[in-house]
Each structure stands twice: as C-alpha cells, then as structure tokens.
Amino acid sequence: MITTGQIIRCKAAVAWEAGKPLVMEEVEVAPPQKHEVRIKILFTSLCHTDVYFWEAKGQTPLFPRIFGHEAGGIVESVGEGVTDLQPGDHVLPIFTGECGDCPHCHSEESNMCDLLRINTERGGMIHDGESRFSINGKPIHHFLGTSTFSEYTVVHSGQVAKINPEAPLDKVCIVSCGLSTGLGATLTVAKPKKGQSVAVFGLGAVGLGAAEGAKMAGASRIIGVDLNPKRFEEAKKFGVTEFVNPREHDKPVQQVIADMTNGGVDRSVECTGSVQAMIQAFECVHDGWGVAVLVGVPSKDDAFKTHPMNFLNERTLKGTFFGNYKPKTDIPGVVEMYMNKELELEKFITHTVPFSEINKAFDYMLKGESIRCIITMGA
Ligand SMILES: [Zn+2]
Ligand SMILES: [Zn+2]
Fold it and tell me: Alcohol dehydrogenase-like N-terminal domain: which residues (predicted)?
C-alpha cells in the first residue's frame, strides 16, 4: 500500500479535557513500530469504560487523549516482527492482549497476559513509551492501547484479533469488549447447565451479554436484578424471564431470590461493580452447588464481607476478567457464534451515529438510553 511506512493524516475525536465534548481534529498517525499494526477503523462503539476515563473522576486524568476500545477495522500495515497479521486482514482491536509467551498465555486457565494485560494509565506504546498520534508535533495519549476514535490507529499485534473477513464489522465490533465480558462470564465461567436458573445483577450491556449467554446455555429461568425498571422490558429480548428491583422489597435481595427459587439460583453473575450487589449475588446462589461470578469493577476501598459458612455450605465464588477469553485465541470464535446464528448482536445495537457526531453517543450513554451506539467512521 502507498501509505506503508508513511505518516497518515486523518480525523480523530480528541478529548482535550475531562468531561468536555470530544473535538474532531486532524491528527498524524505514525507508522507501526516493532510488533505493532496500523489499522483503518471502520466502525467503533462507545463503552462505559470510555466514559468513565473521559469523566476522570476516579483516577489520575491523562489528556489530551484519544479514547475508544470497541471497534472493527482492516489492517493497513504491520511493523517489524509481526508475522500473524497482514494488510487487508479484518480485525478487532482488544483492550487487553495475548503475547503468547508468558505464564498466563501458556496457561489454559488464564487470559491475564503479563505483557499486555489492560493498563488504563499507559498513554504510549509498550515498545518505546511514545505515542503514535500527534497534532503539530504535540503527542496525543493512547487509551488502553487501542484508541479507536480515530480513522487510523496503531495497536500492539498481541491486542489484535483476526476475524472472519465475511463478518459485518458494523455488528461484530461490539464483540471487542462489553458483550464478550458478559457472555464469557456466563458461558466460560459460571457455566450453567441446561435447565438451571441464573440471576444477572445489572442489566447494562455487560449484564445483557451475561443473560444472552445464559439463554444460549439453555437456562430455564433468568432473573434480572436492576434498580432501573425501564431496563426490564428491553431485557426480555435477552432471555430475562423475571425481574427483581431491590427498591421494591423490604427483604434483602438474596432472600427475595431464595424465596423465588426454592433456596437459591444455580448460578449468578454480578455486572454492576457495587460491592453490595456482589455480596447479594454470592449469597443468593443455592447451597450445595451454586456458583457466583463477579464481573463488575468495584471502587478502590470496597471490601467483600460474607459469613464463611456460606462457603462451607458449598457455594463457590469466582471472578472473571473479559469473560476469561484470550483475545487472539478466543474472540474470533465469538464472532463465529454470530456468523453461525447462535449469537444475536443486532439487539444490542440501539443507536448509530456518524463519526462527526460522536458526542451524541456520549449523550445517549449518559442518559442511559443506549445499550450500544455504533459510530460509523468516514461519515
Ligand atoms: Zn502473555
Ligand atoms: Zn469496554
């Protein structure tokens, strides 16, 4: 390609300050260095994690920055040492990686790569600590190593999942993060058996992904727990059969669920990040065999408190990161589930905006109106 080895000038939505609307800028994107690939992003979507770091209320702010980590695109060029990807490949950049060479990557049980595990504080590339984005020579920070709110971005090759080129990128781009986090929490970690009951705490994109996983596994009852009753109607499309709004009960939620299910659900998945919900999710599973899985990210000073007898009574508590999926090894398979019509993605996509109107996607999410808003690049 004629752009190989050259700087590319393109549009990017730059966050100059915390909480301020993104500004469409012309940026320079440097060629990929060792073990990096440069990707032409075609579709990206907004995830709550982008909004959280853009608001920068709970962490050290790092600006100016290009956010974005759920996306689909095509490899434009590859840097030195990249052997598994080539220009033209259809790919999903992923916020966490798989180097293939560390104890975690060698373990079948882990996806927490030592080299490329999510790092929210890093603003440059691992290779040299530098940014590949600049405006008039001033560097713009990366986000999660993906920075997909740009027409071109540079990503470590270990954070790039090569997918079926037939897969529509405007749909499968959402497989990059939230959906897979919830889906994997159920399918690969909670592993409900056919006919079992599953409680899902939090009915945002991740929780709905978890519900979808429970439906795919053949769960007989899927109990959705959320403080927002507006979410209930929508959640039915994702297999949720019953709803519990903690505000409508005097009893603790774990007791409400135990009463509904003759002693507790078989599996539960917690997707809110509230430590109270985590405790409820654990205590609402059935003794003898119940398994609870924590997905939501808690606050810094939270502590999980439960009576040890809840464990001795043969309940299991697990935690998961990105649904235990290894980005390069497993994510192409999630795309295949969609291609084989086992997994429906369309119902997660509630809005679409052109790239020039990316700030609308933030509005939809802040108002709680969207599950996923697809942002179409080049529009
Ligand atoms: Zn690794
Ligand atoms: Zn995300």
Answer: 34-164
